[in-house]
């Protein structure tokens, strides 16, 4: 019975994995096709549904060396913003989570409850207030509008707090007896032990900013400062949609995320296991 259950489990997992990877394979295949071939084999199940008849790199060449939409500049912009936001999120949210987990101060439970209640508010609801705030500060059309509002992650605080709460108080007390200050204890003892959940939060933050579309579209007007997802959407206009170029651009934009996940997936899974399911 256990063997049958194991076979059934792995069969279901394999089917789900195949279903998940089919759109990615079709995207890569479409990026290697000329436009007139793109939808020619999409309505039937055959070998050429995923294998181009006339493979070409012309789509990638036109995307990368497009003078109107300098795609490499957009990638650099997005890497810069996503990297800065990720570092700031790790710094700010780790300190906040540690305070909620281990420090004692008046109203801590109420403040934490208010933070958690913010998780149920859709991001679209705060678009207009945030835009007006950025306009008031004079940060529109600058990277400040992309970085500063993204520094705080309520989910990140919750994720890290779950892990920090599991650290024995005796370890912190021993460090205090040895003369270590609270910042030193945090940087030398707490953070090194929190590598898996920190990497988990870093991956989720980087991915969220890499895929961000609506907020950069609203606050950034200068094309030289625009983000990659807005640049991909620029291949669609009133004149038509160049799906071959969109698929090529999407394939390029997927590569950094895949590389990050391949190198850090062990920590990501460990961080979710250690932090997300603990009470």
From TrEMBL:
Its BP terms in the Gene Ontology are: transmembrane transport
Where does it sit, as one GO cellular component term?
A: plasma membrane
Q: Which SUPFAM superfamilies match?
A: MetI-like
Q: Which CDD domains match?
A: TM_PBP2
Report the membrane topology from the UniProt record.
Multi-pass membrane protein
PROSITE patterns assigned: ABC_TM1
Pfam families recorded: BPD_transp_1
Name all ABC transmembrane type-1 domain ranges. 75-264
Q: Which Gene3D superfamilies match?
A: MetI-like (1.10.3720.10)
Residue ranges of the TM segments = 7-28, 79-100, 112-133, 145-164, 185-207, 246-264
Among InterPro entries, the record links this protein to: MetI-like, MetI-like_sf
Keywords annotated in UniProt: Cell membrane, Membrane, Transmembrane, Transmembrane helix, Transport
State where the protein is found.
Cell membrane
Q: Which domain of life is it from?
A: Bacteria
Instruction: Identify its protein family.
Output: Belongs to the binding-protein-dependent transport system permease family.
Protein name per Swiss-Prot or TrEMBL: ABC transporter permease subunit
Which organism is this protein's natural source?
Paenibacillus monticola
């Amino acid at each position: 019975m256990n063997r049958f259950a194991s076979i059934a489990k792995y069969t279901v997992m394999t089917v789900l994995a195949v279903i998940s990877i089919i759109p990615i394979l079709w995207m890569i295949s479409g990026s290697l096709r000329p436009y007139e071939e793109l939808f020619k084999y999409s309505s039937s199940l055959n070998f050429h549904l995923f294998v181009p008849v006339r493979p070409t790199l012309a789509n990638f060449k036109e995307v990368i060396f497009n003078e109107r939409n300098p795609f490499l500049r957009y990638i650099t912009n997005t890497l810069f913003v996503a990297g800065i936001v990720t570092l700031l999120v790790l710094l700010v949210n780790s300190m906040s989570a540690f305070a909620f987990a281990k420090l004692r101060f008046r109203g801590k439970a109420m403040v934490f409850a208010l933070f958690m209640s913010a998780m149920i508010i859709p991001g679209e609801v705060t678009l207009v207030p945030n835009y007006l705030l950025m306009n008031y500060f004079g940060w529109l059309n600058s990277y400040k509008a992309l970085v500063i509002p993204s520094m705080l992650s309520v989910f990140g605080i919750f994720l890290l707090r779950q892990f920090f709460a599991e650290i024995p108080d005796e370890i912190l007390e021993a460090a205090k007896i040895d003369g270590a200050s609270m910042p030193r204890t945090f940087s030398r003892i707490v953070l090194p032990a929190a590598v898996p959940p920190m990497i988990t939060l870093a991956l989720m933050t980087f991915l969220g900013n890499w895929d961000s579309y609506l907020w950069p579209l609203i606050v950034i007007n200068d094309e030289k400062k625009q983000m990659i997802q807005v640049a991909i959407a620029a291949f669609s206009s009133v004149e038509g949609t160049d799906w071959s170029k969109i698929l090529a651009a999407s394939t390029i934009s997927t590569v950094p995320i895949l590389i990050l996940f391949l190198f850090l997936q062990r920590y990501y899974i460990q961080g979710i296991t250690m932090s997300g399911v603990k009470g």
